[in-house]
Amino acid sequence: MILNSLEMMFGGQAGDGSLTTGDLIAGVFKRMGLEVYTYKDFPSRIRGGHTNYVIRASEQRNYGMADAVDSLVAFDLEAVQAHIDEMRPGGFVVFDNTSETVDGALRRSDVTWYDIPLAKIAKEELGLELVRNTISLGVLAALVGMDAGIVRADVTAVYQRKGEKVVDLNLRAIAAGEAYVREHYAGVPSGYALRAKPDGDRLIMMGNDAIAYGALVAGCRFMAGYPITPATDILEWMSKQLPKFGGVVVQAEDELAAITMTLGAAFTGVRAMTATSGPGQALMTEAIGLAGVLEIPVVVVECARTGPSTGMPTKTEQSNLNHLIYSGHGEIPRVILAPGTIEESFTLTTAAFNLADRWQLPVFVLTEQALCQSKATLAPFDLDAVEIDRGELIADGELTFGEYKRFAFTADGVSPRAIPGVYGGMHLAAGSEHNDAGVITENAANRARMMEKRMGKLEAMRDELPRAILHGVADADIAIVGYGANTGPIREAVDRLAAEKIPVRFLQLRTLWPFPEDDVRVFVHGAHHVFVVENNFTGQLERLIRAVTGPIDALRGLRKYDGRPFHPIEIIAPIRGIAAVGESVEVR
Amino acid sequence: MAMLTAKDFATATPSWWCPGCGDYGVLSALKSALAELGKQPHEVAFVSGIGCSGKISGYLHSYAFHGVHGRALPVATAVKLANRDLTVIAAGGDGDGYAIGAGHFVHAVRRNPDITYIVMDNQTYGLTKGQASPTSATGYVASVSPEGNPDNPINGLALGLAAGATFVARGFSAQPKQLVQIIRAAIEHRGCSIVEVMSPCVTYNKINTYAWFKEHIEDAALRDDHRPSERTAAFDALTREGKIPLGIIYQEERPTLEERTHLPQVPIAKHDLHGDRGRYAALLEHYR
Fold first, then answer.
1. Which of these, A90, A97, A458, B160, could form a disulfide with B165 (CB 3.0-4.6 Å)?
2. Is residue B200 helix, strand or coil?
């Protein structure tokens, strides 16, 4: 019997309700006091197409998926075909056998099968096929011991909006599921059991929620965006909340409008942001350059998905790093922050607004589908730790008429900023090269000085940037560098390797640009093996590291580009391999 | 504050426009209109794109934003949302506004923010040396259309009206008195006002010259059937064969974007960002 450790997958057709049921179960597990992580794998279509939802619950904090799933709830044969190989021996399958059967090799004998005609029960006993998801909830409750009180309370809460009848129907569906297991599978244990513990003061939240919430708390009061997967959640969240806080959200006509609106609002003194994904980011490139030359503070959230072009809209990838670093003609200073957890999605977003204001430049928050659309349990955010630093913003009454120079040369490159409406601050914010007063000029000396002023910010700001975090055994011979959504699987791999007496250290980069050269150089130095873990084909991060370290044999890429996040074993296996072939692995 | 004159809206920046350019007339009328309306330079936010028309932001003493080609309107819309106390004016050319910026034009107009958009129409691409623009006549011979422009010219004002514009007017840069009146009315109009100004390019457009316009324009207000409150009549005025109508072609009152988005009366740019901690904390209840 495996206690309080379960990775469960719901699989069916998009629109079947797997996602809703998955969310519901994640909530139940959380309220049972377990640590929860969820991952959505859904197709880019509204109805139909295989979709699945993975929920991991355990005693210790999870930052990613496990290597294999313990249980599969398959609403159709396709779900079994697609995922039976991902099942852990000893696991169990709940299969809706209303109209299909599973046989042959697909019917693995090392897992327990619960064939239950969910749709049939739904239709015949409850009169509505739609509730088969809820029946499956009752089945699971009976099989793994989900807390009945919590299940019923959560189902009631979720369906309350739809009225008492719907609540009642769903409660009866749960009971029907439980009853079926009692009647037909009384002596067939699932092998898993969950025991409720005190929930404690915890949250369960999606990465995109944490980013949006962080933006609000940081004082963002303007957002313009264009719907795009997987960033749309942020636009939706802000649309709901910003007006309540005196702010405004615009659904722009395209990404060019979304980013230029963001620039307009930021120019006028409002903390402003937009959120997009690869294809939208490509369209925003032009205005990012403008933000750089106008020295306007804007925050751009990029929720990366697979590319190129439209790629796979609902799948994860880390292939836009180069684009964020290098996009645009000409050269501008920019900052790229990459949260590795949902907590950091919050903290780094608040940091992004301060950095943008303080240094008057575009700041990107780079995240990926695997992080931004995943949920996890976490401690409530520390709101007292959030500071709002507007940088050098000139207040009304501080200027004497006729003396103001918007782009004044200063030691750190930051010029005090007057926003429209401030007396005496009139100036031209010119996208063409300009002098310190904002007048367009092609003067050679001025041009060189302006470039030095703007680009110099990147050096001047280094001490204020979020530092990389060192995980694992600090002086281990084997090292890993990674960022973003891979932080979770890498941390788990490091922990599990430590349990196998293979010490590993992991440098989680949180600022990707300006590239943290010093941290990386120090970290890589002396390691016999440095694995650079990233979700792309060309090794974009690895190339940045090579640029810092020069030719180095220790570096090797560990890359995955099938649109899915790493499982810990995919990081563990190659490292184990090195240890197994007798290469020295030692702690110094 | 003391009443200002047009000169108070002038910058010392030397102009990069050609001598005789129609854009001088637009700039001059704009400055006069702002002074007559009693605006203060720091209360005006002026946004332009690029091209000859885009340069105008450098010559107007106010808060000015010289952005990228065709995107003045999204910027101006957001400036207004960020600080509704500002007088927000955007300017662009026929290429800037009706080619690269055509999408933004239609959408800004349908949103109806309380901003003024001035399109300086010279019917050619001046700064890139005279190619056909969206308003160039069919057959217009230029470097990229040596056999004559194959495309039909766009009717910007009719397009704006179709998109739901609440103020549509046309002026001529060589008729300054009328232009000042039109721009004043446009700024005073509550909603998105479009002012198209015929602004001849003396260097590249040898057809649509000052003399040509004088022959081809008429004051709409002088026509018996001119009724600026009727949309169908306005369409008719803008699309019928014959002379080019000048003046306020159409005007209606409709809720602005600021009203429809329930924007607070105090400009967002002036909000205190520190006071909401309790309300922030309350939002987390949803995630427990």
1. B160
2. coil
> What gap in Å lies between CA A252 and CA A258, rounded to an integer?
5
Strand B167-172 to B244-251 pairing = antiparallel
Domain ranges of chain B: 15-286
Residue of B nearest to A433 (CA): B66
Calculate the alpha carbon distances from A424 to A418, A421, B62 in Å.
Answer: 9, 9, 9
Cis peptide bond prior to B134, omega within 30° of 0: no
- CATH 3.40.50.970 applies to domain B15-286: yes
Dump pLDDT digits (tens) for B149-163: 999 999 999 999 999
Look at the block and give the residue holding tokens 């519901």. A24
Please tell me the predicted confidence (pLDDT) of residue B154. Answer: 96
In this prediction, residues B9-13 reach a mean pLDDT of 93
Contact A586, A477 (CB under 8 A): yes
- Taking the C-alpha atoms of residue B195 and residue A347, their distance in angstroms, rounded to an integer, is 46
> Letter for the amino acid at A498?
A
Residues facing A509 on adjacent strands:
A483
Query: Three-class SS of residue B122?
Result: coil
Interface membership of A350 toward B (CB under 8 Å): no
The verdict on A245 touching B (C-beta cutoff 8 Å) is yes
Distance of alpha carbon A88 from the chain centroid: 26
CB distance from A423 to chain B under 8 Å?
yes
- Nearest chain A CA: its distance from B113 CA (Å): 12
Q: Does B237 contact A at CB distance below 8 Å? A: no
Cα dihedral: A491, A496, A502, A507 (round 10): 0
Distance from CA of B207 to the nearest CA of A (A): 31
To the nearest 10 degrees (0 to 180), the angle between helices B72-82 and B102-111 is 30
ipTM reported for the complex, 2 dp: 0.98
Find the DSSP H helices in A93-231: 118-126, 132-140, 148-159, 164-184, 207-217
pLDDT of residue A401: 79
Asked whether the beta carbons of residue A246 and residue B271 sit closer than 8 angstroms, the reply is yes
Task: Round to whole Å and give the CA distance between A386 and A217.
Answer: 8
pTM: 0.96
**Which among B50, B79, B281 has the least Cβ separation from residue A264?**
B79
Cβ-based contacts of A217 with chain B (< 8 Å): 280
Smallest Cα distance from B222 to chain A, Å: 38
